[in-house]
Q: What sequence folds into this?
């Protein structure tokens, strides 16, 4: 029996298992679907859509090419990717999962990157956004805004380390480029931007419409994955498969001298970040240091839910998923190690004692209230924004179908 046959049988049995589980546990599946939908409806859609639309416009107008030429002397030596990778990195950091993959795939489609460069870039530009780390996890789950500094440092420094490691990926496959004499960098950047804008012959209205349509299509796909993995996580718990798998996880935790109480939260976090982080924060009889280590790993690994979203986005290009998956393991381990190393000097010695260096962030306890207010504001206006976006998408889709029939 070859690998292809085994893969077919495995996929068929897995899908059948999920289908029967939905029939056996309809109420739990429905409630899990609602939880996933609520996260997408309130937070994911409204927070990601503006970044997706703006990025499409920036690519169309040639601004990304302009940034790429300027950042080439920095990004190429450090990470062996073009300067446009700096744009992807910044946008991915600001907007969160899976924006880095979306922007990388888009640049690959525009032939701004080679396949190897895209695999390097996507490996370290997918990260959790700061609002989620500080508001949802630090304030919402741990009720400790100061913890966000430690989690964010571990997470983003871990991403940089992954980028430095992945610079060696595909070194043998990559063809060496000849060094060409170029004009002064600023002049070259403006010239590249102008040429890119002229090559994209779409008028502004068409460009904006395509940006909105493509962005909402991607977000609909992301919403489906969030709901699917929310249901899957619930089903695994109901059939006690989570407990069985957690036994194996507890053995692995023992190797790193971590309490086995964290095995179930860690396993849940391997599937979905939010649930895993929430369970970790609520675990009793476990020190805060151990909770931070597990949470940092969960954030770095990103969860199978996010990885499935990325795999779906990358499938539209020739970018392989395997390097991204390997990078997520590296990121999880490095972020967990950094959380352990930085816990005492950053959190206990400085944040925990409210030393002046961090005073602007926490004066009169304003950090917790501000972070939580931002999160509540997003979840309150998010559904209205999402509803407007979906209505706009339906209108645009019907218009496109009408034009296709006419033509």
A:
């Amino acid at each position: 029996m070859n690998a292809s046959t085994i893969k077919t049988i495995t996929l068929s049995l897995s899908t059948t298992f999920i289908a029967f589980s939905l029939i056996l546990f309809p109420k739990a599946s429905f409630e899990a679907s609602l939880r996933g939908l609520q996260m997408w409806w309130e937070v994911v859609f409204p927070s990601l859509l503006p970044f997706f639309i703006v990025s499409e416009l920036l690519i169309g107008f040639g601004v990304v090419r302009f940034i790429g030429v300027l950042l080439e002397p920095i990004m190429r030596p450090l990470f062996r990717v073009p300067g446009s990778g700096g744009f992807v990195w910044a946008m991915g950091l600001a907007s969160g999962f899976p924006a880095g993959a979306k922007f990388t795939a888009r640049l690959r489609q525009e032939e701004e990157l080679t396949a190897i460069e895209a695999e390097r870039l996507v490996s370290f530009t997918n990260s959790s956004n700061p609002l989620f780390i500080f508001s949802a996890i630090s304030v919402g789950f741990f009720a400790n805004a100061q913890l966000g500094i430690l989690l964010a440092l571990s997470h983003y420094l871990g991403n940089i380390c992954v980028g430095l490691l992945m610079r060696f990926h595909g070194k043998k496959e990559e063809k060496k480029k000849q060094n060409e004499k170029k004009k002064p960098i600023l002049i070259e950047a403006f010239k590249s931007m102008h040429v890119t804008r002229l090559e994209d012959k779409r008028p502004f209205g068409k460009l904006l419409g395509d940006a909105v349509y493509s962005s909402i299509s991607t977000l609909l796909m992301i919403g489906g994955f969030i709901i699917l993995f929310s249901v899957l996580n619930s089903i695994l718990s109901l059939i006690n498969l989570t407990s069985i798998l957690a036994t194996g996880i507890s053995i692995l935790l023992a190797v790193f001298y971590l309490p086995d109480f964290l095995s179930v939260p860690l396993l849940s976090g391997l599937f979905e970040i939010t649930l895993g982080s929430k369970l970790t924060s609520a675990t009793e009889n476990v020190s805060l240091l151990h909770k931070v280590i597990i949470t940092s790993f969960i954030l770095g690994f990103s969860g199978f839910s996010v990885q499935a979203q990325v795999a779906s986005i990358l499938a539209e290009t020739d970018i392989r998923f395997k390097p991204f998956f390997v990078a997520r393991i590296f990121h999880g381990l490095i972020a967990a190690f950094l959380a352990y190393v930085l816990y005492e000097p950053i959190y206990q010695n400085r944040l925990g004692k409210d030393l002046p260096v961090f005073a602007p962030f926490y004066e009169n306890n304003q950090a917790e209230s501000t972070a939580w207010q931002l999160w509540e504001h997003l979840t309150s206006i998010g559904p209205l924004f999402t509803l407007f976006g979906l209505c706009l998408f339906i209108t645009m889709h019907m218009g496109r179908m009408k034009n296709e029939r006419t033509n």
User: Anything to note?
Assistant: The two ends are 49 Å apart (CA to CA).
